[in-house]
Amino acid sequence: MIITSAHDQAGTAGKKGSQFTGAAYPYLTMPATDGVTINTVTFTPGARTFWHRHEHGQILQVLAGRGRIQSEGTDVEWLRAGDTVWIPPGERHWHGADADAFMVHVAISLGETQWEEPLSEDDYETATPKGSAR
């Protein structure tokens, strides 16, 4: 068993090599342990990750706010507080806040993360999910 106290992690920036567009504030909740890394990330309006994929998948738990997520070749989906998302191993995706809202999520990343290029501003602006924000 490993217990990581809040005191020991205070002030730690996010996972090394993370890539974001806009102002995002990652907090390393648990450093890589047995291939699992946990980050709590606060996204300001419009902030988002670069395209990326995870060796063994990723779990997102949305704590607050409203956001967007998209896997390559699929429609954009809304993210709201209380949502949990499973992203399968190797699935190329991005996630972040909506254009006019903050979002906070816990990201549980399994295995190595492969960071790719940023989602362009044009692609983000046209990536609004259809329908209301639930």
Account of the protein in words:
This protein has 134 residues and is mainly beta. Helix content is 7%, strand content 47%. It contains 2 helices and 11 strands. Strands 2, 3, 6, 7, 8, 9 and 10 form a 7-stranded antiparallel sheet that branches. Strand 2 and strand 3 form a beta hairpin. It is globular, with a radius of gyration of 14 Å. The mean pLDDT is 89.
What does this entry show, briefly?
The protein is mainly beta and 134 residues long. The chain has 2 helices and 11 strands; from the N terminus they run αβββββββββββα.
Fraction in beta strands: over 45%
The averaged pLDDT comes out at 89
Q: Count of helices?
A: 2
Q: Using only CA atoms, what is the Rg? A: 14 Å
Strand/helix succession: HEEEEEEEEEEEH
Number of strands: 11
Oligomer: single chain
State the secondary-structure class: mainly beta
- Please give the alpha-carbon distance between the first and last residues: 39 Å
Low-confidence stretches: none
Keywords:
mainly beta; 7-stranded antiparallel sheet; 11 strands; single chain
Describe the protein's topology.
Layout: H1 6-9, E1 20-21, E2 24-33, E3 36-43, E4 48-49, E5 52-54, E6 58-71, E7 77-80, E8 84-87, E9 93-97, E10 103-110, E11 113-115, H2 121-125
Antiparallel strand pairs: 1-4, 2-3, 3-10, 5-11, 6-7, 6-8, 6-9, 6-10
